[in-house]
Amino acid sequence: MLEIIIALIHFAVLIIGIYKIIKFFKNRSLPSIKRRKKIKNERIEKERIEKERIEKERIEKERIEKERIEKERTKRERIEREQLEKERTKREHEHNEQTFLSTSKLLDRIKNKKEFDKDRKFVYSLFHLTHIDNLEDILSNGILSHDLAMPKNPKRISNDKIVTRRSRKSISSGHTLSYYANFYFNARNPMLYEKIKALNDSENIIVFEIDYPLSDFENVIYVSDGNCANNDTRIESILKSEDTDANPTQSIWGFINYILTVSGWKNNADSLEVVKEKKRRIMAECLIPKKVDVSFIHTIHVQNNDIEEKINRVIIDNFPNFKNIQVKKTPEMFFSSWNL
To answer: Which of 251, 298, 263 is closest to 186 using CA atoms?
Structure first.
């Protein structure tokens, strides 16, 4: 019995020893695993941080490069704009220096009417169509080109598509049609006819008639054998269009002189193409750079007594110096008789 007890004690001691050994090695191995895991996690984190750093550097380099390219592009565009503006200013300056007389000098010449008429090579009345809402601005600033008038937000009667086409069409001077104040040689033309038909307040369309010294500005005034917006129309400076000896009937002035003798453009015997061509020709234009001073306006044509009285009142009340401008009721100009 004693032996059995002793054996059990020895067995218990052995079990305890084994347990302690297992516990010892277990406690020794756990920290090692944790350390390895920690080291691994630290390595992964460092790699992640390094990747982020590299990616940030790449993105930053790309941003800097894009900024550099954008700055260079902006600089090039600025230099090009400045160069174009310098060239435009220089061209315009030379243009004005070489060809324009001062307004005071022109007015001095006009005072002596006989001398003025004797010197002129071209004597034509010119007509500008507009809305009565633009009356006071024109009497204050003159008849302006489209480019100069648009910032003033005038009451427009022109077709938007035609205006856009004219603002993009350049002539031999290097300027677009919108650089010029445009006038018709024949006011009773298809444009006026269409506006009279289409506008609800068509009675408020008025026509300015001017007497302008065309020959004083031969290099810069342009004339056409039809509507300038039409691609078939010839547009030439007065200087170049003056030589008509070769074939006077085919010169621009030949066409202009012809349209002054007609009051319509439609004949029942005419084909659509013939009518279209007549309409183009009867809208022959005179293009005067930038503006025409109000001093050259001698008549304002209107449709009825009410508009005549209204304009006379504006002149008397606000522009007493312009009492010499005649306000004339001219119903036939505005198609009171509808002969086309």
So the answer is: 263
